[in-house]
Amino acid sequence: MIIPVILSGGAGTRLWPLSRELYPKQLLPLINERTMLQDTIVRLRGTTGLGEPVVVCNEAHRFLVAEQLRQAGVRPTAIVLEPVGRNTAPAVTVAALQATEGDRDALILVLPADHAIADPQALRAAVETGRQWAEAGRLITFGIAPTAAETGYGYIKAGPALELTQTARAKGSDLHPAPPVVLTQNSKLKTQNSVLSAFSVAKFVEKPNAETAGRYLQQGGYYWNSGMFMFRASVFLREMEEHAPEILAACIKAYTGAHRDLDFTRLDVAAFHACPADSIDYAVMEKTATAAMIPLAAGWNDIGSWSALWEVGQQDADGNVTQGDVITEGVKNSYLYAGSRLLAAVGVEDHIIVETADAVLVARKDRVQEVKEIVARLRAQNRPEALLHHKVFRPWGSYQCLESAERYQVKNITVNPGATLSLQMHHHRAEHWVVVHGTARITRGDESFMLSENQSTYIPLGVTHRL
User: Fold this and answer.
1) Which one has a higher pLDDT value, 395 or 343?
2) pLDDT of the residue at 178
3) pLDDT digit string, tens, across residues 160-186
4) Which residues of 134-152 are buried (b: 16+ CB within 10 A; e: fewer)?
5) Are 283 and 246 in contact (CB under 8 A)?
6) What is the C-alpha separation between 394 and 421, in angstroms, rounded?
7) What are phi and psi of 164, to 5 degrees?
């Protein structure tokens, strides 16, 4: 069985103001009607032997993640909560520990939750090839066939081609060496569906400058590092023990001390805080002798910036991508997003213009990587725009402030069907509730009653209440 491990812990600062720290890009519907998290899981449907996913996410996003999985009809094996971000190596390690509880030799497929894939069928085919190599003991990374001299990605230089001649499913424990696997170069084994080919990894390369990226594209043999991986959980943990023992020890302690809370697995806070932060590339993939790369041509994009969204969007005759209520005149090769009102643009070219209820971004397309610097300045000033949208999400639904002044404020509160606000009481404010849509059960002091559309009630000072 293949267990998808979905990494959903990022903040997506380069897609501000749409992506915020408490509502990041992977939880937004940026490409279609599904959120990127939902898309990541849904596109795998049809893969042979696919199990339910393990999702690793920030503790602050837990209710949003759980609700989006429910809406997509997904019942995760676990939702593992990170009390603090520690990069991908610890996240994958705790997911591997979770996976080995059911099967110590379980195959795990590691996928970031914020990637776009134009051709899901090609991804599923690559995963099927990856299964053969992962079962044979290899740590698989998926390399993206480059289409441009991109400077925003790390690269993988492919070594000699490998062919699988014998699949030896190792039965070693998750922390002890497994029996050797027979792999040879330059021989072929044709299966009913395809040739099971992969490449050895010559080296991983940091993000290059433009000249070096152009040379990589011209020479060939270089692939973008996708951040997607596949391996047996036991083999990965064995490699972690050899190459990153401090991370493994901290993750074992954090996972052993974890406790269940509703649908969530809460890692031990102190143990995970003490875990070194590192990427899976640095911690294992660049050091292991068992790495193999499978090329992938599936219309991949990591949606790392607004220019990436422009690239994958539906461009009109002038090269513009628009969302929302947008009117343009003489605008070319731009991305324009209107979230809450009319957006009109005249005579701009190669620009990103994004409007939300509380912020507007205007940037040249070739400088969108600098958006993260704006977010850093907002954080330094303790501005709420770095953290929250005008609309704030809670486990029971959401609320939005419509008007606020010295002696009053007006909120629009949305309560999910069947959800309940906590029983509460205020000494310094009274409340008027008006139902504008749906039906509400009201608790007010000792009373309990129903209200429907266009009905209202008054909550005096000091009276307990719930909706």
Assistant:
1) 343
2) 38
3) 998 776 444 443 333 333 333 333 333
4) bbbbbbbbbbbebeebbee
5) no
6) 10
7) -85, 120
